[in-house]
Amino acid sequence: MTLSLFHGALRPKGVRRLLAAVAAGVMAISAVLLAPRPAAADTPWLNVSEDGYVSFSVPAAYVQANAGQVSQVVIEGNFGPSFSWAEFGLTRRGDAWSGVLGPLKPGLYSYQVTGDDTKSLKDPTNSAGVASKPRWSTFFVPGDSARLLADAPQGQGGKVETLTYRAKGDERSALVWTPPAYSAKGAKAYPVLFLQSGDGGSATDWLDLGRAKQIFDNLSAQGAMKPMVVVISGGSGPEDKELKDLRKAVADKFRVLRGSADQAIGGVSEGGTQALRAALSHPGQFAYVGSFSGLLSESVGRANAEAINRHVKLVRLYTGNVTDPAYNATNRLTKALDRARVRYEFDGVNPDAGANWNAWQENLIDFVPRLFRTVPDHGPSAGHGQLEGEFTPPAAGTTPTPFVSEDGFVTFETTTEFKDAQHVTVWANDAPGGSWLRVPMTRDGDRWRVTVGPLDPWFYYYKFIVDRVSIKDPSNPTKVTSEPTWSGFFIPGDRARLLSDVPAGQGGKVESLTYRSTVANQDRTALVWTPPGYDPNRAERYPVLYLQHGSGQSYTDWAEMGRAKQILDHEFLDGDLVPMVVVMGNGNVSNFNRELLENIVPAARARYNISSDPSQQALAGLSMGGGQAFGVLKAYPGQFAYVAAFSAGFGSSTGVDVAAINNGTKLLRLYVGDQTDFVYPSVMASLPTMDNLGIHYEFAGVTQGPHGWDVWQKNLIDLAPRLFKR
């Protein structure tokens, strides 16, 4: 099935062919699946499953009433690579815009609903909001890696209250967390941490997005932090005078220790910069300083080093990966501190997050337990790496795109023709499991640019969406015949070895086979893979696999998108594949059974040394092609001893000759993606149907990923070595 049918607001290419196929019984998809029950006004728009899949269902009537008529609806949220902000397109099905994304890693996610790029809405069914971002909502995906972000048991947490004070003649406010044992009338005084938000941020961001209260509550309950008072300020962060006023207000109202040895400061982004500046410029104020993605640019002279080292017990630096603007700044700062001989610690490069709250939550979890006490570990966090020098993509317009770094960061860039565009994104299969997200691009002179990653080794495809119009990247020479606006790129690595090109001269050949279609009344083409060493005169004819595409696709897709040649080449060279011929035909016809048996098969036999013995013939396909494989199985049981369907249901059980299927079929194997694959319910419903009929089959289990090539490539990798071995 062409991806454009199921990704929100993309043109529904192939819908007519799909509906015709359904009517013909080629493929059974329930009406409920195509038109889900409309969401009532009080029905939650968001549902999070126990295994981290997130379902959205947004009533179309609500969108129209509050945003007007729209052509597309997306969920904007921190779902992208490295938790970057991205857009997840919803599909209009019946009375709702809906979609499923996941599995998401444990953690906190924020989102808003947006129609036609600019019409943003708050989810009215989700009470978890963000005070500084009125249209945002949040949800939490639980899991062991996010246990410190979960709410502490009732009654075990600290208390957050608002502190109002005056600074520079104006009334200001801050949030103050006090530990569970804190008493305003008690004799004990506590050390204090001043925690700042970034430029333009709010103190409430540390609660709504940073999960600071949960982090403090859980660390406190575990005895993993020194009991302390935490003062959270927002905005652009306090300047020297403002900070002095804030410290005085805290000391006047709360039982805190006033000496510099019992004072710490930290912050995110510009707040981290100001924390560093306050501690390094005036080293007698704070004994502990943490910079989370700070951007300090001032040089540090040796004259200050002695005072800093004497008064400041801890300077700890944090940065995300190369998508964090602080990455290069941190690289420069560490060199400056080294030259000045200022003692500091570096938490290492966070490989999985950029400049966002997911990274800063981890930074806070690492930083707080180090305050006001001696700790044995001064190295980087587990899994964090070294700075490898500054990250500098090629200058605009100097290289084909995308530019892929050795560690999997990908820089996309448009040409100059879109300099007047208003909204540009890059749409790619870079979400969990290979789902499709649109990552916003930013202006870079007269071009648009963005760096995403790190992406796992695999094959990726993408296009630009410019003011809601799909655009091919003209700087990328790759092409997809059935999707003219798509381009591809490959990230090498062990995980993607079977999708890579084999060394020149070692693989099989792919040739075009032209045949006459009496069904379509035209000449048509198939692609045929022959194995290395193929002998047209071999006495024993080769077994043959007929491999079919989906709706809206064609015979070129298994080669251009499915990486069929690379997969077959590798598995043959690895010794996992029986030498066979693979025929990739054109299945876009009104009667596939006739097209296959009367046109494709005879043409392949006439040109290639392949067997006509049913035990040496296999048939497989994806989506519509899987439905076609089931159709042939039912109409001609035993004609193909090996049959497989990728992301396709069995369909109607009427008139099925079970005995003939079982007697004539050596392998019948079913595959499906996960909950993000729209045919998942249909395929899962097929299993008890086939069980009740008594059909012998194998279910390969759920392949993580959507109704897309990431899943079908894995399905072919699994299927091909199983053929012609029974």
TrEMBL record:
It holds the Pfam family Esterase. GO terms for biological process: carbohydrate metabolic process. It comes from the Bacteria. GO terms for molecular function: acyltransferase activity, transferring groups other than amino-acyl groups. This is Esterase. The lineage of its organism: Bacteria, Bacillati, Actinomycetota, Actinomycetes, Streptosporangiales.
